[in-house]
């Protein structure tokens, strides 16, 4: 069954907003529209539950129950234990805290870590700084022509058995090629290494099936997956308790508190249950049945099929031009629908002109400084990035191509 785009777009208040609906929205990689279920839960929390949760009176009990619901339902969708789902202020903050735990874990050992230069800086810089502690940091370098990561190159980095941790993206926020997380995680595990996956740029295109991916940590952002501004970290139990705790000592026995030193944003955690509401609404509407994990997998596949069909005409159009460089695969099935191009001149004036023509997108380095440098792209020029999700329509893409044709 194809995704019912009219039903999908009816779930997002932004499409009826007089401020937002005038533009075709291609800034989704910077933050997606929130679904109505999240907006309604957030409003209800601030209206009826904005007190210290779990206390012995109705508003507090209701607030705590909704926070618990968010963790329980998201965990069930992703196929993990509820205790393995942690909320934090952002993915950058969650990754930073995790790196401090790894700093202690590897201090005084001969263990090494592997990072890539395909990552957003949030999943690169914090790991590279562990070299200040004397921890060896090895770089898994991308192919400067294609932007791809070659697993054979990783195998060489793992060969001596010293690597304890491999950190890599599910897909880059500018290259967008979908990395084979399951194969990479298996390769690392066979060499005795744990894996940390930055899923920020992939999760908007389908929530992960964590057991199928086989990684030890998976991080993504709720505000890019139709929710509020929270970072979500799936930390598998064995690794989470092996790492030194980073929170109050008396919370170290609870996994979802063990590595979240900041107090939770109660309202936004509770509102994350709206993300599960939305997936369930899509599943019900499209006849996808089964347990929460099965429904999630079915909706994931619907989203990915819709995105590939909608974004392929844009990739074809850009591939046919000889005045720009399309970054990443030309086949929509091999990538997320996050499309970055290098232009002859600076990219920001082009995004500004597109904005005047009804297209919402942006330009710059998008904190992907290392990948752009590795690809030989002038950071002063930056790239033009146009990013879609499953609610992007064929008409949106047609409008974008028309505008690009006029501006370029």
From TrEMBL:
It comes from Fuscovulum blasticum DSM 2131. Keywords: Pyridoxal phosphate. Pfam families: Aminotran_5. Signal peptide: none annotated. PANTHER family: CYSTEINE DESULFURASE, PYRIDOXAL PHOSPHATE (PLP)-DEPENDENT ASPARTATE AMINOTRANSFERASE SUPERFAMILY. Residues 25-235 form the Aminotransferase class V domain. This is Nitrogen fixation protein NifS. It comes from the Bacteria. InterPro entries: Aminotrans_V_dom (IPR000192), PyrdxlP-dep_Trfase (IPR015424), PyrdxlP-dep_Trfase_major (IPR015421), PyrdxlP-dep_Trfase_small (IPR015422).
């Amino acid at each position: 069954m194809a995704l019912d785009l009219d039903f999908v777009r009816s779930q997002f208040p932004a499409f009826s907003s007089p401020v937002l609906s005038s533009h075709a929205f291609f800034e989704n990689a910077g933050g997606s529209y929130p679904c109505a279920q999240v907006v309604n839960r957030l409003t209800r929390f601030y209206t009826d539950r904005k007190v210290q949760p779990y206390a012995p009176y109705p508003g507090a009990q209701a607030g705590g129950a909704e926070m618990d619901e968010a963790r329980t339902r998201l965990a069930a969708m992703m196929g993990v234990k509820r205790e393995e789902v942690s909320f934090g202020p952002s993915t950058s903050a969650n990754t930073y805290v995790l790196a401090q735990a790894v700093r202690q874990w590897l201090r005084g050992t001969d263990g090494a870590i592997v990072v890539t230069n395909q990552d957003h800086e949030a999943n690169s810089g914090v790991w590279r700084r562990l070299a200040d502690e004397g921890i060896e940091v090895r770089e898994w370098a991308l192919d400067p022509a294609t932007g791809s990561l070659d697993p054979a190159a990783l195998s060489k980095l793992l060969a001596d058995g010293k690597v304890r941790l491999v950190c890599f993206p599910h897909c880059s926020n500018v290259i967008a090629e979908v990395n084979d997380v399951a194969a990479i995680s298996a390769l690392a595990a066979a060499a005795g290494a744990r894996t940390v996956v930055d899923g920020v740029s992939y999760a908007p295109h389908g929530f992960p099936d964590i057991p199928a991916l086989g990684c030890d940590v998976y991080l993504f952002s709720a505000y890019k997956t139709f929710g509020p501004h929270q970072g979500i970290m799936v930390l598998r139990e064995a690794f989470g308790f092996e790492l030194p705790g980073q929170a109050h000592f008396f919370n170290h026995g609870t996994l979802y508190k063990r590595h979240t030193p900041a107090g939770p944003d109660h309202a936004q955690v509770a509102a994350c249950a709206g993300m599960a509401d939305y997936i369930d609404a899509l599943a019900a509407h499209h006849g996808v049945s089964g347990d929460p994990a099965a429904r999630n997998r079915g909706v994931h596949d619907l989203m990915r099929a819709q995105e590939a069909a909608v974004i392929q005409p844009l990739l074809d159009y850009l591939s046919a031009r000889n005045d720009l460089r399309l970054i990443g695969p030309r086949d929509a099935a091999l990538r997320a629908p996050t499309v970055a191009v290098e232009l002859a001149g600076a990219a920001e004036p082009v995004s500004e002109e597109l904005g005047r023509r009804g297209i919402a997108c942006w330009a710059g380095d998008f904190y992907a400084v290392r990948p752009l440098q590795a690809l030989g792209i002038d950071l002063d020029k930056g790239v033009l990035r146009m990013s879609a999700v499953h609610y992007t329509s064929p008409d949106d893409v047609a409008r974008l191509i028309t505008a690009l044709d006029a501006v370029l």
